[in-house]
Every structure is written in structure tokens, then in C-alpha cells.
Amino acid sequence: MRQLSGHDAAYIYSDTAHANSNITLVHIYDQSTAPGGVVRFKQILAQVESRLDRLPLFRQKIVQVPLNLDYPYWVEDDNFQLDYHIRHIALPKPGDWRQFCIQSARIHARPLDLSRPLWEMYVIEGLDSFLDLPQGSFAILLKVPHAAIDVENGNELTRLLHDLTPAVRPPTPTPPWFPEDPPGDLMLLWRAGFNLLTWPMRLLQPMENAWNALRTTAEAVAREYRGAPPGSPVTRSHPEVSSQRVFDTRRFSLDEFKQIRTLVADCTVHDVVLAVCAGGMRRYLELQDELPTDSLVAAVPLAVQSERSALQAPQLSWVRVGLNTDIEDPVERLRAIHVASSASSTATQALSAREITSLAEQAPSLAIAATSKMLRSASAVLGEWAPLANCAITNVPGSREPLYLQGAKLTYLSAIMPVHDGMGLVFSVTGYGNTIVVSFTACAEQLPDPEVLAQCIRDSFQDYLALARQVLPAANPSPPLKTPMRRKAAGTAARPATRRAKASRAVPG
Q: Average of pLDDT values for 311-317?
């Protein structure tokens, strides 16, 4: 039995009927590398079952304290059934990329069953019309709650489920597992009473940390805005979100991102990613005649080193970074983003995400629940006046080494992220091997044509790459990577990448 931290409990309390905090990891495999060229569903079941001892969270569920007097607990499910959590489906014909994105978004949007361990896995076949993938490729979607996964180490689940070689070994027998007896209400109430009695003593240090964090944050905000409200222009991503989601993605070469960063001195790949997303959003809003005159703003996690302990590893702090979408010239926009990103990193050197949330982690869960509702209401009000950000752009760590599942090579890794009221658009950036995958999740009502935004992101990247090759031609330019898409019939002419992309149902990578 393990109690949730205040930070993780806040995700559980913040879930609503139309917005949950689930994260869905998307994996696509080439099973031609597997022995015999086939991976059976029963092999995937055996693979997961053989590693349950390494993934204890897969057999744990949430138990609430009566009257919500304390944070919930992770407890072992004495009725755990693996077959309930792993499901096998197939796309209808023709099984193209658009259908896959729609199905993935629908799976992601559905809430998890709180009475069972909080995860689901979907094995999806029928991906027969994807370019750049051989026939028979399949996908695995792994859905988990944000409370159960640390995005900074989000590749841990992927790493534990995969191997580093295509060699297939018989699954090791699962060690005997005997679930703990579930705690009774009296035990939970006794623990809650003890925690409440010791709460003032445990609160002293977090209060000091929180005060220092808030003071530093106020100073940083004052330096950045100089008295102006910390807002961003209102766009279509700010109203209350619905329960429906859309998802799409584009895949790029890491080497080409490194070429683009030569356009601006000291520029990083992270800066280029922000610039590509900014260019895509600018193009999309221009097509809708909705581009604001002021720059869009993104919420971005930056690694910062706390001044309190230089020996600790850097931690993530969310900062607001201007995307400079009001600048038409792509290179000047990239330069401005580099300056803004560097300034934001400097301003948050004394902050860490853990310091900012340390006070909340010690507060009673009942107060957290009330505060969460209050913040959601305040967010709705502030969103109409001065939204804090137009989107979020976050990194989902991947693996530099190729990964295999029962011999099938992992060819694609991405993530579908949670969105909520006031923040209906979230980008996830995943690195795997020599590729960078830029994906986005959005509210379906706010972004009814995700294929258009995906094409705009691709066009933005191609503009930067063309400029970089003019300045520094590549000796051996690598061909552009493509996201799997619908196969074109023989003799069909390729559609030019123009504004007609809005009508295209098969989106090139």
C-alpha cells in the first residue's frame, strides 16, 4: 500500500466528465523483423505478463479515503485480470493514417475505470495502407493516468516492455504473486487522523520552500511583463473543452533539425522545435483568418537547477515562452524564440517544479479538491481576459537505441496528451533513434481539421530546412521521413503541399 503524493492526487481530483488526465503512449511496429514475420496476440499477452513484477503499478488500483479526509492510496487489486486490460482490435478497411488517428483519439478520450488498475493496452491491426511501413505492421496504445507516470521519465514504461535485440527468448515464468489484503475504512481513517495531527510539523519546511518559490516567481514575472498582465491573445484553444479529442503527428530527422539550428548562433534543437510549432500555428491561424496581431505564447517545461542544491539533478519548471508568431520572417522568428527561451531558462534557475508544489503536497486532500475546483473556475474567468498560454509544448523522452517487442522493431513512438479547459492544444515532442516526432492533441470542437494543422507543421519545417540548406548545404542530405499514411493508387499524382491540404485525408509526413 502506497499513498499518492499531493501532486499526483491533484490529477485524480482534477478529472472531470469532459477532461481527464490520461496519457497515451503510441507505438507502431514492423513485425517483418520478428521470427517468421508474425507476432501473435498471445505473445504480447505473455510478454506483458512476464514483466508484471517489474511493473507493480499494473496490478494496483486507487482506494479513496472515506470522506476524502486524506490522499488516496495505491493498493494491490486482489481481482486483477490481465485480459481485461489488454484488448485486440483492427482498423476497418482501408486502414489509413486518418482512421488510425481518429481511433487513437477516441481510445485516449475515454476515462479509465477507477475500480480497477488504471491502465489499458490496445493492440491495433489493419494498418495496411500506411506508407513507409511493410504490410502487417501493428500498433500498441498504452493508456495510463498522469498520476501514475512521471513525464520526465516517461520512457520507463516503454523500456520495461521492450528488448534491445530482436532475439526472442521464451518468457520467464511469472513469480508467484499474492496480493496484499485491501485496507479497511477504519485503517484508512486512522492513517488520515495521524496525518492530520502531524500535518503542522510537516508543513514548516514546505512553507519556507513555497514562499521562496513564490517570491522568485513574482520577481521573474515582474521582470518579464513590467506591470503588464501575464496573458496571451485569445484563440480558439481557450474555451471549455468537450469530451472529444483529435490527434495527429509528423515525423522528422534529427539531423535535419541540427541543420536548421545553424541558422541562428547558439540555437538549440529545442529552439527549432518551438519555431517549427510556431510556424505551423501561424500558418493554420492564417488559413482560418484568426491570426492575432500579438504573439502566441506556449507553456514549455525547462530543466532548471535549484540554487538550494547544486548537487541535485536539474528538474522541470513550466515557463511561458513567446512563440513570436507576429514575426513573418522565419529566421527572425527563430532568433527571437532563441532569445526568449534563453531568458526564460535564466529567470527560472532558482525554481523547480517540486519546490513550487511542495506546499500543495502537504495539504489535506479535501483542501486540494476545493482548491482544484476554485482554480478551474478562475481559469475559465481568466481565459476570457488574459490566457496564460495558447498551447503547451512538452518533451516525452524516448530511446536512442532501437527497441523490439517479440522481435518486432519499434518504428514509431509518440504520445497523446491530456487537454483541459483553457488549454485545448498540447504538443508532445518525442525523440526515438534519429527521429523527432512532433504530435499534438486538441479538443475536437476547437480543432475540427487536425490534418490541416499537421500539414502546416510539416510546411513550417520544410521552409526552415530549405533556408538552412541555402546557408549551409548538406553534403549528404538525408531523405525526409514520412509519417505513415494512406497508400496512393498506382498512377495517382501526389497532391502539392498547398492550402488544399485542408481537403486531404492522407497526410504526408
A: 52
